[in-house]
Amino acid sequence: MDARAPQIPRSLDDWLTKGARFGLIAKGVVYALIGILAIQAALGSARRVGGSKEAVQYLGSQPFGQALLVVVGIGLFAYAAWNFIMAVGDTENEGTGAMGIVKRLGFAASGVVNAAVAVTALQLALGSNGEEGGAKTWAARVMHQPFGHWLLGALGVVVIGVAVGQFYLAYTKRFLEKLDTASMSEKVRRAVTRMGQAGYASRGVVFPIIGGALVSAALTHDPSEAKGMGEALHTVAASTHGKILLLVVAAGLLAYGAFTVALAKYRRVRIDIAVPLPGR
Question: Hey, where are the domains in the chain?
Fold first, then answer.
């Protein structure tokens, strides 16, 4: 007899699935805005590149901005919850091998990051400046925990590992395995594939900068070394041929945003949570 039965009610499973899809749309909107702002910066029409916080600030400055921030904030919380389900429940069947653990830790890290962005969005909606969500602030908080420097360094290594995985996905197109490609037309399939490849490759450029900065912060015991998405993009812009590279990476992030919105329709979402029976 299955020691994990009974399963959660079907109605709750449906709501969690809808929440995951809604969360994918919210995440896609944020990534698309990050890409748009970075393109503007590369073309000289914006002062500097920005990350998630700047993206939600920009969203809040639009007509009905407060309502949009609330919607995106709720969506990002839903997306974070799905990531925690994937990490703890292993609903993606990643397993307990070394690579599986790295992937599941990546899900958990994504959950934490998106929950933090959700908090920032809701703070801005309520009139706060959202100052509490920066990478340096979170790095400092982690460092103040027991074994915090080790935890921060480990998180940096996980982010670097995830970055390698992004390039792997872009090259092999294995992300298509989690999509319902049978329901796509050939034209849509090609578009989704190209957007996914461009998006994962761009994340593969940015994530090592973020991960390396976290490792550096842990080694130096200096949380100011930590970098978020915006600071990583600034590092790209400051490199040799930075404007061109930033434009390419930004276009990829915009493509990733569109790809993530497409995932809301075509991603196969599994929420297989079982409730342990007492005494089992």
Answer: 11-266
